[in-house]
């Protein structure tokens, strides 16, 4: 098993390799391999894995790339993430990608898929319309067709046909991946001092750019370390950060929150990796249906999903209570309609249940954290005074 | 003289129709009529009528608040209640209006919804908006109609099937329950047959801008013309009468080579433009004046297609009532992908002999705005036509900067005039 320090080092490098070298190398080893890039939040990577493909998460360029061309595509009042994505694709960072999938989460991402079409990027560009109808016969059938559409595109490229056996096998591997991530989160909820949230973030994010087999090995190594490492707790409060499911906060901001007296014990940053709650059936005759049902019935809550029968405010409150969080930090990208339209409702739910919270907005390339540090510090101090 | 009289006739008809709806809404307690809150893009007017229910359109309330200059206060109140600055101001205006007693344009309280019909065509914010409304009106049933996006530039049979199933198994049963009436397909078919007439007429009306001078302004006046078809009258004999009358009046203008009417009289057409993006409502008159003062006439606009794109041939088909409702929703302007939007705008520029295209980029509306810059560049390159760009907002007066917009428009018009002089 790889040693923990190496895992940390490698995941840090992988999660911010904006040239996606790992994927490029992986693809070069076999002619029928394909790379599919996908934007947040969730994408059923299993289907691509089953047909000899690698799905690679595209989270924008963060604060690691100067934006020149991207700004010419967006007005000042639109969030930052699509600018970085455009910059990368125009600079050739994703040249080895065969196709791009834009899961339906907001109008900006939806229209970004159109920009990719206009720019003729990749061999295919697919806007993946998730059903907002959760009846398996209605929304489920539609979602299966959407997945098949992607498989057809891939088949045209590599001639690899989907088999039940292969897809069940892929589901099994991703189930394992989710189990390991959950075990790490569960353990860290109890003992957050054993690894920092920054380290955890890199580890999870790295999993979106490498094979699931390799990520599973990595996670086993992390779990082994967490089980053995003891360490000493510091006087910090436990918080959940919520609202950054798409554009990611800069790592400096994450560090700032931790340094200002918080342990981040849950989050929605790379939520796609934990989107499906529990295992997906891996032994059926119709694994696409199994994937679809998991999406319809076992998805986590998010701003991109219609929630009327299952309000997300209550679900967030339950998460906070179950994980014994001391408070919630709402951190949303500036100009992000889905997050910003949701947060007032979530704040109300928190107030109703006496859960303390603060809120700030960020941009993926924010460079100054002084104000946030003071705000979070005051928040953490006030909670410490009360508990 | 005669033209003024006949012009007034269509306006009177429109006023009567809308006034009648508002009156009906104010007496629902007495009549027992059920009220459906829904949206313009992808509106299921014919289906609502088939159940004898009355529609309320939150975004129409918002735009009217904008025109009556009270949206600023509503938005402030919504922000005071915790809503953030940088989100769609239609939503905040609506929430602010509810905080202030939900008083409609007639000064009377609008009735609460009996059904929230969420068909969120072409915009995600609609979904968020209704999640908010659902919390304001707890217990009111929500019928969701998810319209798939034309991501690949076409409507597949699977997409239509998905919509039909939602209508059959979710939307219609909820409407039956709320209205207490059984779904009557033949009634729906009759209504749809009237819709076709209205759709034919609206296409003919907007097609008259091919004339020189254009007899109408397809943006500033166009937003009035689309009122009845968009807010629940599509499919009614009154709407057929209204559009017939309007068409007649416009043909009169064509025959007499008259330009568009504005609040200050007739425009002497000098510049012909296509406009992409919604208008600003809070300073609508001032905004319009900036155009007609320069003789700029809008010969086509994408905004008048938000409630349905009919000029590429779509018509409701009474023989396939549910399929056609689904296809209608998928055909609305913001449900088209960016290459389709470029195609449609380019066609308008060519068909209506526009001298340039102007983008009014709306801060509130990512559905329209995200991608507009590349659309502009593509059109500019493809058609070698001047492109102008301004920024404003729908109903937030803080984002209407008169001097900025004026400066930009002045230089744009100057450039267009120079170009015309050179090419003549
Ligand atoms: S940050 Fe928000 S608005 Fe921007 S693309 Fe992501 S979800 Fe959409
Ligand atoms: S974002 Fe645009 S289309 Fe959507 S509700 Fe707001 S103004 Fe309407």
Task: List strands and helices in order, with pairings.
The complex is a heterodimer of chains A (387) and B (424).
Chain A: H1 4-15, H2 21-28, E1 34-38, H3 45-49, E2 53-57, H4 81-90, E3 99-103, H5 107-118, E4 124-128, H6 136-158, H7 164-190, H8 197-206, H9 212-228, E5 237-242, H10 251-259, E6 262-267, H11 287-298, H12 312-322, E7 327-333, H13 337-352, E8 356-362, H14 370-386
Helix pairs in contact in A: 1-8, 6-11, 7-9, 10-14, 12-13
Chain B: H1 2-26, H2 28-31, E1 35-37, H3 45-50, E2 54-56, H4 58-67, H5 71-80, H6 89-99, E3 115-119, H7 125-136, E4 142-145, H8 157-179, H9 185-207, H10 222-230, H11 237-255, E5 261-262, E6 265-266, E7 271-276, H12 284-292, E8 296-301, H13 321-330, H14 338-351, E9 356-362, H15 366-369, H16 372-383, E10 387-392, H17 402-423
Parallel strand pairs in B: 1-2, 1-3, 3-4, 7-8, 7-9, 9-10
Antiparallel strand pairs in B: 5-6
The complex binds iron/sulfur cluster (2 copies).
Structure description:
Chain A has a domain at 18-160: 3-Layer(aba) Sandwich (Rossmann fold). Chain A is built from 14 helices and eight strands. Chain A has helices spanning 4-15, 21-28, 45-49, 81-90, 107-118, 136-158, 164-190, 197-206, 212-228, 251-259, 287-298, 312-322, 337-352, 370-386, and strands spanning 34-38, 53-57, 99-103, 124-128, 237-242, 262-267, 327-333, 356-362. In chain A, the strands form two sheets. Chain A has a four-stranded parallel sheet with strand order 2-1-3-4. Chain A is globular, with a radius of gyration of 20 Å. The N and C termini of chain A lie far apart (41 Å). By secondary structure, chain B is α/β, with parallel strands linked by helices. Chain B has a domain at 9-181: Rossmann fold. Helices cover 53% and strands 10% of the residues of chain B. Chain B contains 17 helices and ten strands. In chain B, the strands form three sheets. Chain B has a four-stranded parallel sheet. Chain B has a four-stranded parallel sheet with strand order 8-7-9-10, sandwiched between helices. Chain B is globular, with a radius of gyration of 21 Å. At the A-B interface, α5, α6 and α13 of A face α7, α8, α14, α15 and α16 of B. The complex binds iron/sulfur cluster (SF4) (2 copies). One iron/sulfur cluster is lined by residues 59, 88, 90, 123, 125-126, 364-368, 394 of chain B.
